[in-house]
From TrEMBL:
<dbReference type="InterPro" id="IPR054344">
    <property type="entry name" value="TY-Chap_N"/>
</dbReference>
<dbReference type="Pfam" id="PF22552">
    <property type="entry name" value="TY-Chap3"/>
</dbReference>
<feature type="domain" description="TY-Chap central">
    <location>
        <begin position="210"/>
        <end position="341"/>
    </location>
</feature>
<feature type="domain" description="TY-Chap N-terminal">
    <location>
        <begin position="30"/>
        <end position="154"/>
    </location>
</feature>
<protein>
    <recommendedName>
        <fullName>YbjN domain-containing protein</fullName>
    </recommendedName>
</protein>
<feature type="region of interest" description="Disordered">
    <location>
        <begin position="337"/>
        <end position="362"/>
    </location>
</feature>
<dbReference type="InterPro" id="IPR054343">
    <property type="entry name" value="TY-Chap_M"/>
</dbReference>
<dbReference type="Pfam" id="PF22551">
    <property type="entry name" value="TY-Chap1"/>
</dbReference>
Amino acid sequence: MTADSAADESNDNILLDEPSTADLRAKVTEAWREFASALAALVPTLAPGAHVDVTLDPTASGTGLAVYSVSLRVLPAGVVEALAVGNAELPEGYRMDRATVADLVALGWSPPGVLPGSGDSFGLSSTQAKASSLATIVSRTLRDVYGAPHPAFLVYLVHDENDEPIESAPLATARHEPGIGEVLDLDDLDDLDEEGLSAALATAADDVPLEERVRTVVATMTKTPVDQLQVDTDGDIGIRAGSAMVFVRVRDNPPLVDVFSPILTEVEPTEDLYVKLSELTNRMPIGRLYIAQDTVWASIPVFGRNFQATHLMLAVQVMTGLADELDDRLHGEFGGKRFFGEGDKPAPSKQPTEDHRTGMYL
């Protein structure tokens, strides 16, 4: 080691030992430890045929069209098979390099196609008796390989062999997708006429492509013919909500529907803003707020597997109300530009006493 590299390492250690930084690292580490512990406790309780799907929320994580996920399936005799997304399932620009693939193999994953039935995914065979070790591998895969900054960016679904949801204890701070129907009452949809609601529910049949189901639900809610929906070049459906814009995006692998909104753009990512977004997210029954570069986003993911039209309806209704309220509130406090806020200008930036880069997990 050279003198310069030794000095650099010493400076890094000093930074990591700085109280606020060290405390943040400890909190994130503990959150992952809690997630792994909860997953290890869950796996032995599942009957043969049960699945656990864990997905890094692509909207909240800023991974764009790339969807990183791990799926566990319980087989007879306590065997557990796991699949992790491989390069063939990722768009160009998000595929893993050789070093990253080597990291997956080092964790215990077999390359795609080696484990029978794994297809384009990395495969791993374990047992319920080794749930603790398996949970550690899954956690490290999501954190170290797929880049999940915090378990709060994970969305999970536990279901049986017939895709029926299974009630389970929470996986730490990860979000349980079926909770959307448990937190909000269907009476919230009283602005929809019964005929339209029935049509949307009927179109949610499993034999209809997910994209078609989603478009029918959104068209029903907005009272717009399906062929007149506002769809951009990325295939995202746009819904105006006052001064805000809400988008609905359908992803195929794994089946997932993103309901998201760019609340503010050209906003300065200060510590005060991170704290505010954390506080607001903690008070939200579903969804989350986060900042990526200079844009504040709101996101509510809905699983496409065992798709429920009412879940998407609630997500859209919550997001349209939330986005239109929050863009005004946050703009007044932090400046930036609203989607339809003509003439908006950034507010004068606040001068923090210290530059704490708290990380987007908040």
